[in-house]
Amino acid sequence: MEKGRILLALTGIHPRRWQELLSAEREVVLEPEGASDPSITYAVVWKQRPNLLSSLPNLRAIFSIGAGVDHIFADPTLPDVPIVKIVADNLTQHMTEYVVWRVLDHHRQGMLYRAQQPKKIWHEPPQRLAGDISVGIMGLGNLGRAAASALLSLGFAVNGWSRSDRPMEGVSTYSGEAGLIPFLNATDILVVLLPLTRQTQGIINHGVLKELRKRNGLGGSVLINAGRGRLQKDADILRALEDGTLKEASLDVFEVEPLPKTSPLWSHPKVFVTPHAAATSDPVHLVPIMLRQMAAFERGETLDNLVDRDAGY
Ligand code: NDP
Ligand code: OXD
Prior knowledge:
- This protein is an alpha/beta fold.
- It has helices spanning 16-23, 70-73, 89-107, 110-116, 142-153, 176-185, 206-210, 234-242, 283-298, and strands spanning 5-10, 28-30, 40-46, 61-64, 83-84, 134-138, 157-162, 171-175, 189-192, 222-225, 248-251, 271-273.
- The chain folds into two domains: 5-88 and 281-299, Rossmann fold (3-Layer(aba) Sandwich), CATH 3.40.50; 89-273, 3-Layer(aba) Sandwich (Rossmann fold), CATH 3.40.50.720.
- The two termini are 28 Å apart.
């Protein structure tokens, strides 16, 4: 197979560095040029314009620059070619750092100390060991499993929930609809690392949060969402914080991004906000993986990390 040309179609992300690095090995056409171009065989995308990909008559594969692919499925005329999602040590490491950072901050009462400091309050709350706290990871995939390993090494009890059975040493695993309530009932700190699909949209709602374990050394349940914003209902999180269902939350993702300036989440004393920054896609680390995959595909090898279209991730 000939060396394929790439269409680079990124929305909300500056394409320059991606273009430079991809161009080291292949010809790159930058959207809005390239629509309908028969010489293009690969598309590298983030939130591509709807109907763009179906205009490419010889498209062979689509590469997401993120681990999530919901942005690709937003296109109503997606052509039937393989979709590759990103799996990279660098991205996984960033996400693991984010999860460990947020879990430890809640566990070690970071919010309380930050509230006490401006008031010069010298008060030490009771301290619990990590082993007394159970962290439940929703989405035990590439990112969830890495975060689980790091949390286990710190001594936390770890639960995991996935669509299919995913045994993992040291982790209490649950799966499917039947496993959801038992998983939540055994979880103090809920970490959400699910993809956004038809099945998972809105899954983090008041009813689900109510099922989290209440009697724990933390003084209440905690939510950490770094998956996707539309997994959660922002209003339900606020309600859960107000009525005591939740003690605190760390949110990296929101129903609407950027989080509107009018959102009460910005100034809520029990919410820690980051701007969808848990694990940023770095072209220096990700482009070589894409180029390797394209070369292997042209040698007749199968692509890795393919998206299951029916499952939506
Ligand atoms: P994977 O595809 O490797 O893992 C997804 C996990 O979710 C799997 O365990 C899967 O189950 C589980 N899952 C999917 N659907 C369901 C369901 N209906 N019920 C129960 N479990 C389900 O994805 P990654 O770990 O690589 O990434 C996860 C998500 O993290 C991405 O989709 C993206 O949205 C988000 N992300 C956010 C970033 C940020 O900066 N905030 C950065 C990178 C990613 P099974 O194992 O059975 O397939
Ligand atoms: C991703 C993201 O999906 O950055 O990789 O959100």
